Structures are given as structure tokens and as C-alpha cells.
Amino acid sequence: MEIDIGIKQSDREQIAEGLSRLLADSYTLYLKTHNFHWNVTGPMFQTLHIMFEEHYTELAEAVDVIAERIRSIGFPAPGTYKEFSELSTIKEEPGVPSATDMIKRSVEGHEAVVRTARSLFPVVESASDEATADLLTQRIQLHEKTAWMLRSLLE
């Protein structure tokens, strides 16, 4: 059945492509954060271990919301490591960084997600896709706040 939600097929396709990049960035950050949770050591272990768990739990819920939005506008959501690695601006973390470097890499990851989400606004706004705009706004707010809180740990 054709989709008739008031957004042109070509706009929905562009939005789905952008959301796929957001999904890939979010999933890659989820994986990186889970890795940090498992492998953090040092004097801030307890604090960081719990914080990373909170972050990856939130990201696990977010990837579902993003993927479901892609499906809602009529496109398949990417779902393999191969697709995510091709679409993501966030690269996997080799080895086990120090706790301080984990925090820095986390800040970089959250800021990358913000940039990816923000890059979608021109097409979303021109297509009057309020639902996607709302999703993007929520993701941007959360990731900007998380990056700020992480940066505060480095001062």
C-alpha cells in the first residue's frame, strides 16, 4: 500500500537516509558506551560504571525509536554492523582507553550524534515533518546535556 501522510516520497527518502545515519551514530555510541561500562577502571570506577550503564540503556531505547520512525515513513531501517559502520560518523574504539579518555571519547560521540541530528533539520522542516523534528529535538537536547555533564567530569 502506498503511504499518504502528507510528505512526498522523495522527502521521506531523504529523511530516512538521514535518520539511518542518526541510527548508525546512536548504535555505534551505544556499543562504545557499553564497552566503556564493561572495561572502565580507576578511582572513578563506580561512578563511571553506573553512568555508562545509564547512557547505554538510554541509547538502547533511542535506537528503537529512531528505527521505528524510519519504518513509519516507509523505509527499512539499517540493522547490521556493516551498515552501521558505513553510515556512522563515530568510529569504534580500539583497545581499552583510560577512564579519562573514555569520558573524552564519550563527549565526542554525543556531540557527533548532535551534529548528525541537527544536519537533518533543513529537509525535515521543508517537508513539514513535525514528528521527525520532535524526535530530533529530543535527541539533540539529551545528547547536548549528556556531553555537558561528561565535560564537567574533566574539569
Description:
- This protein is 75% helix and 0% strand.
- The protein is mainly alpha-helical and 155 residues long.
- The chain has a single domain, classed as Ferritin, core subunit, four-helix bundle (Ferritin).
- It is elongated.
- Belongs to the Dps family.
- Residues 17-155 form the Ferritin/DPS domain.
- InterPro entries: DPS_DNA-bd, DPS_DNA-bd_CS, Ferritin-like, Ferritin-like_SF, Ferritin_DPS_dom.
- This is Starvation-inducible DNA-binding protein.
Which descriptors apply to this entry?
155 residues, ferric iron binding, Ferritin_DPS_dom, mainly alpha, Ferritin-like, oxidoreductase activity, acting on metal ions, elongated, DPS_DNA-bd, 6 helices, 75% helix, Ferritin
The CATH architecture name reads Up-down Bundle
Oligomer: single chain
CATH superfamily: Ferritin, core subunit, four-helix bundle
Shape from CA axes? elongated
How do the strands and helices of this protein lay out in sequence?
Blueprint: H1 9-39, H2 45-72, H3 81-87, H4 99-119, H5 121-126, H6 130-153
Short description:
The chain is mostly helical. The chain has helices spanning 9-39, 45-72, 81-87, 99-119, 121-126, 130-153.
